[in-house]
Amino acid sequence: MSDTVVIPSGRDKQADFGKYQFISDLGEGAMGKVCKCFDPDFHRMVAIKTIHKSLLNDVSADEFRERFRNEMRAVGKFAHPNIVSVFDAGEKDGCPYFVMEYVDGLELKHMLDAKTPFSIEQSLSIIKGVLRGLSSVHKSGITHRDLKPANIFISNTDGLPKIADFGIAKLDNSDMTQIGTVIGSPKYMSPEQCIGEPVDARADLFAIGIILYELLTGTYCFMGDSTSAISQKIINVEITPPSKLNSNIPRYFDQILKKALAKRADDRFQDAIEFLNALDAAGKNYKEKTKHKSLGWLGGGVAASLIAAALFYVLLPDFGASDKSVVSNASVSDVSDSGDVPANREDLKTLDGAVEREFDTTQEKVNVRSLTPEKSAKLAKLFKVAETYKRIGRLASPSGSNAFDAYKIVLSIDPNNKEALAGIREIEATLLEKARASIESGDTEQAVSLARTGQEIFPDSPGFNDILNRIENRND
């Protein structure tokens, strides 16, 4: 979020929630609505969720209040980068509300509805982030029970997926009765949810399997003309292996999804970490095979940087008119002659081929002075991309859409480029500074995340190891 916050002069002050200044409505559902507000004490935007007053005027009022409090109790105990945080709670005009982290980003549902293409790496990155958040949730004895793309936000700031909406979460020690016998969104319910049986954390993992399938293939796996038809398929019909829908998906993903979407809970992954470990192994296998294929047609020194960037198509936010001319819905390798980003993958191939032709495998370096003016212009545009990513905080993630990767592509063309080398040193210093500041502010999760990122891309830098050791010693 920018340091400058503009509060609309004509805003409805009657809509304020105590000190929280109402800015706009963000969304509304059957149970309540969410508003965007400004917290003057901490100078930040927040999201405030409140229950519809009409739901508190009938015989179900106590149940709705309990469900609302249930969500506050469920989420309020977490401080995890993959879970939307809860900061505060209160009551206005007899209606309870709670104050949450405002996520500047997009619902995963909107990205899927827009047919945004997701690479295998992107799909894994999103699902692994969600599984990390779920692992924390499940260890605390909570089952979400309504995981779906509409409840997963992708942050524009750092690309992290964040789980939201614990409205029907089940706490292990809760004896709250439920409204009806089936709780959850029909398309993402587990077989046991569909027939009204008791559920546990493995129902959440079934929902994650459906979402992963949708990310990889662009297709929902239990299509039906009605809720009943969808439920019957969830209960009885095996999925079509994703590799049959997309030949680029390795067959070992078929096995992972078969296990994730097993009809019997005992046949699935038994916890989020088991699912996460399976995806880690599959991701490493895929990356290794992709790397080996690339080396067959592209010089090894260039391949690692180009392929890592070219495979990622990350949906970026609109950064304002000044930034739209620099970065679009593309990765840092997407630089063309006529514009800032190519329109499609064929343009990417053209660029990669141009770099390949200019890379002399008999030499250790490529001299930028030997490049054509057009290629020098490409370097200049890569620097513009890097600067934009630095301004919005994308220093080293998400993969393929960050300043570090932009500089690495420059160095794959001109290994001695001083500006790129200086940019990488600046990223290292900034990550160290942010990690140390996070420790001082008590945000250990963020410090660990930053330190591990730095450790991965700067393995020879002792600073990141020192930070992780410092955190570990604190916890002992």
Walk me through this protein's architecture.
There is one protein chain. The chain has 476 residues and is α+β, with helices and mostly antiparallel strands. The protein folds into 3 domains: 13-101, Phosphorylase Kinase, domain 1, CATH 3.30.200; 105-172 and 182-289, Orthogonal Bundle (Transferase(Phosphotransferase), domain 1); 295-475, no CATH class. It contains 17 helices and 10 strands. A 5-stranded antiparallel β-sheet has the order 1-2-3-5-4, covered by helices on one side. Strands 6-8-9 form a 3-stranded antiparallel β-sheet. Strands 7-10 form a two-stranded antiparallel sheet. A hairpin with a 4-residue loop joins β2 (32-39) and β3 (44-51). α3 runs antiparallel to α5. The protein starts with 20 loop residues before the first strand and ends with a helix. Mean pLDDT is 76; it is low at 171-182 and 295-369.
